[in-house]
């Protein structure tokens, strides 16, 4: 004979199990994705900087270097302009109202002409239509050399940075016509080398 008490207990357990199993589960739902929000919030806390981001730093750095270099160049340019003005104050830089003329006898050409003191002998000889010898036109060779027969060439001309003639050659009257500016009257033989 079944024990009524046991039957009651078993029925209670079954009811409890049925009750709980009939309850709706809460289920699982993924948490809201807040990663973007977190990132934005973090980004907003990073202070703005004046310098470029690391990736751009090399480029920006380069640009900076260029800017600095550019500034330097600008500065140098300014100095160069000033220095250039000083450097360009050569024997030919004579104001128009201060230009003087000297009578120069070109022995081989058989003519005496007036030469200005602000232009090289070579240029002024060419302006006469003479075929004057030359190569560099910068005082760096001796192609244009000529001989001033009156004495040391630098008593009669000023050389603008000639590099080729020695003191003895200048004393002998040799000159480089491409960089020689008249400072007195004289006679000259073109195409004469030391
Ligand atoms: S042409 Fe070269 S020194 Fe005059």
UniProtKB/TrEMBL annotation:
Any one Gene Ontology molecular-function term assigned to this protein's record: metal ion binding
Gly residues bias: start-end ranges: 65-75
Sequence intervals crossing the membrane: 6-23
Occurrences of domain 2Fe-2S ferredoxin-type (ranges): 102-194
Needed cofactors: [2Fe-2S] cluster
Acidic residues bias (residue ranges): 76-85
Keywords on record: 2Fe-2S, Electron transport, Iron, Iron-sulfur, Membrane, Metal-binding, Transmembrane, Transmembrane helix, Transport
Domain of life of the organism encoding this protein: Archaea
Region (Disordered): 65-96
InterPro entries, per the entry: 2Fe-2S_ferredoxin-like_sf, 2Fe-2S_ferredoxin-type, Beta-grasp_dom_sf
Gene3D superfamilies, alphabetized: 3.10.20.30
Family in the record: Belongs to the 2Fe2S plant-type ferredoxin family.
Protein known as: 2Fe-2S iron-sulfur cluster-binding protein
């Amino acid at each position: 004979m079944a024990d009524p008490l046991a039957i009651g207990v078993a029925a209670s357990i079954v009811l409890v199990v049925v009750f709980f199993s009939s309850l709706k589960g809460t289920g699982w739902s993924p948490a809201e994705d807040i990663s973007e929000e977190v990132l934005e919030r973090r980004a907003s806390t990073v202070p703005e900087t004046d310098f470029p981001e690391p990736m751009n730093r090399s480029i920006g750095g380069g640009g900076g270097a260029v800017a600095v270099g550019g500034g330097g160049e600008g500065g140098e340019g300014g100095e160069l302009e000033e220095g250039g003005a000083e450097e360009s104050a050569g024997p030919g830089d004579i104001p128009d109202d201060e230009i003087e003329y000297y009578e120069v006898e070109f022995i081989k050409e058989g003519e005496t002409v007036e030469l200005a003191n602000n232009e090289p002998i070579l240029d002024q000889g060419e302006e006469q239509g003479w075929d004057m010898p030359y190569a560099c036109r910068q005082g760096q060779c001796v192609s244009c050399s000529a001989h001033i027969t009156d004495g040391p060439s630098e008593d009669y001309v000023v050389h603008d940075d000639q590099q080729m003639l020695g003191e003895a050659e200048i004393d002998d009257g040799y000159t480089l016509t491409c960089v020689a500016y008249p400072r007195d009257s004289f006679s000259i033989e073109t195409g004469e080398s030391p």
